[in-house]
Amino acid sequence: MTKVVLHIPRQPARRCLGERLFQTTEPWECDWMRDDYYRALSVPCGYMWDGASIPRIAWTALGITPSGIADGASLLHDVLYRAAGGKKPTEWRGCKLTNENGNTVLLPREEADALFYDGLVTAGVARHRARMAYLIVRGAVWAFWGRPAPEWGKA
What we know:
This protein is an alpha+beta fold.
C-alpha cells in the first residue's frame, strides 16, 4: 500500500468568473510525499480552473459542489490534468511540478486521480464520499487528460 502525505496549507484564494469557472487571486502551492519521493506543485495568480467538475446529481450524494471544501483538491487535479501530468508544457500556464531538487517532473494520470482523493480527505470530505468521487474521476474523467484549460468567456 502506498503511503501519501499531502500538505495543502490553505484553500486557494479565488474569484468566481462564472457558474463553473474560477481564477486564483494569489499564488497557491501544495506538496506531498509518496513512499520514497517528494513533489511540490505551485500555481500562479490568475490560473483558471473549473472547480470540481462533477455532475449536479452527485453533489448531494458526495457532499461536494464545484466550489467550496473541494477547491484545493480540484485545483490540484485540474492543473495536473490540463498539462497531462507535465507532458503538455504549454498547458502548465505558469504552474510548476517539481521534485525535492527543484527539477520539473512528470506525473501519470493514475497518481493525479489518487491525489484528488487524498486532497478531498485532507479537506475534510468523508473517506467514503471521497472514494465515490475518486471512482467517478477514474471512470469518467480520463477524456479530459491533456485538454486545454478553460478561458475567460468560454466556460
